[in-house]
Amino acid sequence: MFQFMNKKLVTYVALLVLVVFAAGCGSSPAPAPAPAAPAASAPAIDKAAVTKEAAWDGYKKVLTDVSGKTFPLDPAKAKELLTGNESKYLVVDLRSAEDYAKGHVKGAVNIPLAQLPQNLDKLPMDKTLMLYCYSGQTSAMTMVPLKYYGYKVVSISRGFPSVEKAGFAVDTTAVAFTPVAAKAPADPKAAAAQEGLKEALDSLVKQFAAKTLIVPGKDVKTLVDAGADKYYIVDLRAADDFAKGAVKGAVNVPLANLADAMKSFPKDKTIVLYCYSGQTAAMSTVPLKAEGFKLISISTGFPGAEAGGFAIEKK
User: Fold this and answer.
1) Model pLDDT for residues 55-70, shown as the tens digit of each residue
2) One domain for residues 74 and 164
């Protein structure tokens, strides 16, 4: 009997050991999960770089219009395009509200130049924008960002005085501008580029308001005479016209060559631009502003430089 009880005890102890072992194993904490790999962060967007790319993209699109002779747009041609097709166009008067109230193209809305940067993404895509200002120079300046944004847009040559001469109906009845709901691009680079262009245009608009961007030739000459080493004069006309006579000391950079030529422009000097009438020079200020240059555009172009007393020489 003792032997039987001994065997029973051994069996009991063995079972107890197994139970304790099993319980100990079950209470061991599960291994901690491996830490998740950190999500790959999107590369930082170089806003200055994408703004430059956008500005030159818009500039090249305007050059296509220049070569097709639709920029700046002849006022008579503008009237022809508009007549009978008013629903396809949004005519935009960029002058001040006071001057708009005194008389404007019939049906035109007023978006004063100072308000345009904040409305760059609030214009209708389903219409062609037909712009005019005082002389064609500030409306030309807005062409680059508007083209980049994807608008169909034309700028009437030489501004409001030319549309009156072309026989546009002039009215004093105000037409309200209704902004379109802005849609931010899904692509972060495109969104950064648009924001950068808004800022570049806003900076130029403020310089224009301070009367230090588009400046009469005589005033530019005064500045250059007082410190010639501070200025770098660029003639944007065709090489043939440059050869016939240009401002003494100017370098010739035809419009199509500007993107490459500007790489050698001195960053420590103010770039003085002139063209035929001031309109393509004003348009060229946008990519150059994006590149970080200090700028002056001679009002009314080469004729303005001549009238301002600049020495002219044949090349």
Assistant:
1) 999 999 999 999 999 9
2) yes
Position 315 scores a pLDDT of: 80
Total domain count for the chain? 2
Domain range for 86 is 47-179
pLDDT tens digits, residue range 16-49?
A: 434 333 444 444 455 556 565 555 566 799 999 9
64 and 118 in a single domain? The answer is: yes
Closest CA to 193 of 202, 185, 205: 185
Q: How far is CA 124 from CA 35, 55, 72, 177, in A?
A: 50, 21, 21, 11
Is 203 inside any structural domain?
Answer: no
Burial 277-312 (b: 16+ CB within 10 A, else e): bbbbbbbbbbbbbbbebbbbbbbbbbebbbebebee
- Kindly state whether residues 97 and 166 are assigned to the same domain: yes
218 and 165 share one domain: no
Same domain, 54 and 163: yes
How many other β-carbons are positioned within 10 Å of the β-carbon of residue 170? 14
- What is the reported pTM? 0.86
The answer to the question of residue 156 being in a domain is yes
